[in-house]
Amino acid sequence: MLVLLAAIFVVHIATVIMLFVSTIANVWMVGSSTMGQVSSGLWLLCNKTCEQLVVKDDDEASMKAVQAFMILSIVFSVIALVMFIVQLFTLEKGKRFYITGAIMLVCWMCILIGVSIYTARLTSNTPGFTNPHHGYCFILAWICFCFSFIIGILYLVLRKK
């Protein structure tokens, strides 16, 4: 049981770190342009230097929603990590990890909404990019989506142990 808890804790920390990286780094879409390799993220457009990401007026609300949901996912993931540690040492068996599992599933939902909006509304709108493809931050976000779901379910299952 101790090894399982340690493994879940390590995966949870890895998920938090990957969420930070995927939200902060600017490599959600990568492509080529006349200036060379270009990447865009949630905040900046980068080639040799980075500048503010310009989004069309139609997609501005979508980009703000993606930014908000990715930040919320980080917040809920950190809160779930703190709650895991608190519940591990304060609650008795059978009552542990309800709150942690629920918060982690809220984090999972925030990642799902944020990345889905980005996929539906913002991946096809990359003006000036030739041969655009998804960058590592986009892939990390989907990996965090999977990990947060698995961790949330495991927390709910572990409440009985």
Automatic annotation (TrEMBL):
It is a multi-pass membrane protein. It is found in: Membrane. Gene3D superfamilies: 1.20.140.150. The keyword Membrane applies. It comes from the Eukaryota. The chain crosses the membrane at residues 7-29, 68-90, 97-118, 138-158. The keyword Repeat does not apply. PROSITE patterns: PMP22_1. InterPro entries: PMP-22/EMP/MP20-like, PMP22/EMP/MP20/Claudin, PMP22_EMP_MP20. Keywords: Glycoprotein, Membrane, Transmembrane, Transmembrane helix. GO terms for cellular component: plasma membrane. PANTHER family: EPITHELIAL MEMBRANE PROTEIN 1, EPITHELIAL MEMBRANE PROTEIN-RELATED. Belongs to the PMP-22/EMP/MP20 family. This is Epithelial membrane protein 1. The lineage of its organism: Eukaryota, Metazoa, Chordata, Craniata, Vertebrata. The gene is Emp1.
